[in-house]
Structure prediction request, 294 residues.
Amino acid sequence: MLEASEILNASILIVDDQEANVLLLERMLRNAGYQHITSTMDPRTVCPLHLAHRYDLILLDLQMPEMDGFQVMEELKGIERTGYLPVLVITAQPDHKLRALQAGAKDFVSKPFDLIEVQTRIHNMLEVRLLYQKLDNYNKILEQTVQERTAELRESESRFKSLTELSSDWYWEQDAQGKFTKVSGPVFEMLGIDANHTSSASSVADTGQWNEAERKQLNDNIANRRPFLDFVYSRSKADGTTQYLQVSGEPMLNSASLFIGYRGIGMDITDRMPRDTEEKHLHSDADKNEGGTD
Prediction:
């Protein structure tokens, strides 16, 4: 709602070629407490005045020499790009009322004046006008706030992605069924997955000579929706070397706290592993092969 002072501080322009009418309206408005009243008897000055001051209300007489009120409203449309004309027309011709409203005026008063009616229509029109201005300003502030927050979010996401890329070889996301929905980096290449097929966490275990115990533990973490940090697992490659991968992940929940998948980062840490660790894995694989020939 508006305070009474907001309405009384509104800017009003009186346009009438009859000085007596101008003085009557000025006196009535000042007696009612309005503070910012301007008047002109030359309709040609209305648009320049409105362009400079953007009046909250224009009291416009329709019957004026050289330029009537309808012509004034046409010129005002070039200023008010939104199409809203803050015009209350003054007319002694009943048939002009409908035409004035069709031309863009928001209300009308008849001559001779009924001062109570004039005051009421002015008050009501200003209240609506100022409320719409408040709403428009609020929407602009809201839109700007949304744009700022969106920019901040994108910047934050960009920083997170940049840090993720610096600290890992890949970023991954899976849905609740374990299918990869988003990857960044050589995820499929490093895991030996066909990038043309949607793969799940369980299908990765069947790709290559994985350490079964390690893969079982990783799959158990995912199946039970547990977060894991720097989990290391390995596989034997075709050239006889062992590849070590390190992965961290966490379950994702939606706004209703329902599980929607996993996300995490990973990297190839083979070059960081001590030589003796790799040799132990080679011996372990060799023992398995020997056991299989008995």
About this structure: The two ends are 91 Å apart (CA to CA). The CA atoms of residues 180 and 197 lie 10 Å apart. The domain at 168-291 is CATH 3.30.450.20 (Beta-Lactamase). The chain has a mean pLDDT of 82.
